[in-house]
Amino acid sequence: MPKTDPRVDAYIKKAKPFAQPILTHLREVVHRAVPGVEETMKWSTPHFDYKGMFCGIAAFKEHVGFGFWKAALLADHLPGPGGPSAAGQFGKIASMQDLPSDRDLTRILKIAKKLNDDEVKAPPMRKGPRPELKAPADLLAGIAKNKKARATFDNFPPGQRREYIAWVIEARQAATRAKRIETAVEWMAEGKIRNWKYVK
């Protein structure tokens, strides 16, 4: 019998309707692929332990995240960038269609299981502050046109400035970049951090 946690049941029940089948499915695949995995709650979201930290799921307003504790060691096997992120290593999962096949998920889970079986340590977290990202000229120009946005940006700690800068420079198309700058200026004029939607 899978070692389930009633707190995970409650978490899934409280999640938005779109997220419930995704969370339930991921939970089932994890238990099928890794017998002996144990459910728990860490940082207010469901996690699965197997001989230590293993993987976790989380529901947000418009997507579900799914990620592995030792993601850096699984980078060659993951569909996304492999590193830690709010969305996990599978991007923002907004529907069942966004999930890899059960076969692919099971394969990745078994690779992750072997890492824990073999007691492979996760690489150490990088120490010290992240290098500061230089704000692009078009973002600075947009902010300069709005006094409130400029004041907010100037008073942000480095991490919050970085979130806006990264969001803008990661845009692949010029139209997307322009829209993100417009939205960033609007949000900063209201004193909002980049991920204000996820702050409870």
Describe what you observe in this structure.
- This protein has 200 residues and is α+β, with helices and mostly antiparallel strands.
- It folds into two domains: 112 residues, Alpha-Beta Complex (Aspartate Aminotransferase, domain 1), CATH 3.90.1150; 62 residues, no CATH class.
- It is built from seven helices and four strands; from the N terminus they run ααββββααααα.
- Strands 1-2-3-4 form a four-stranded antiparallel beta sheet.
- α4 packs parallel to α7, α5 packs across α7 and α6 packs antiparallel against α7.
- The protein starts with 5 loop residues before the first helix and ends in an 11-residue tail after the last helix.
Helix/strand order: HHEEEEHHHHH
Can you name the CATH architecture of the largest domain? Alpha-Beta Complex
Mean pLDDT: 82
Q: Which parts are unreliable, with pLDDT below 50 for 5 consecutive residues or more?
A: 80-87
The main sheet orders its strands as: 1-2-3-4
Largest sheet: 4 strands, antiparallel
Can you tell me the CATH topology of the largest domain?
Answer: Aspartate Aminotransferase, domain 1
State the helix count. 7
- Main CATH class of the largest domain: Alpha Beta
Question: End-to-end span in angstroms?
Answer: 35 Å
Question: What does the radius of gyration come to?
Answer: 19 Å
Short descriptors:
single chain; 200 residues; alpha+beta; Aspartate Aminotransferase, domain 1; four-stranded antiparallel β-sheet; 7 helices; 4 strands; 11% strand
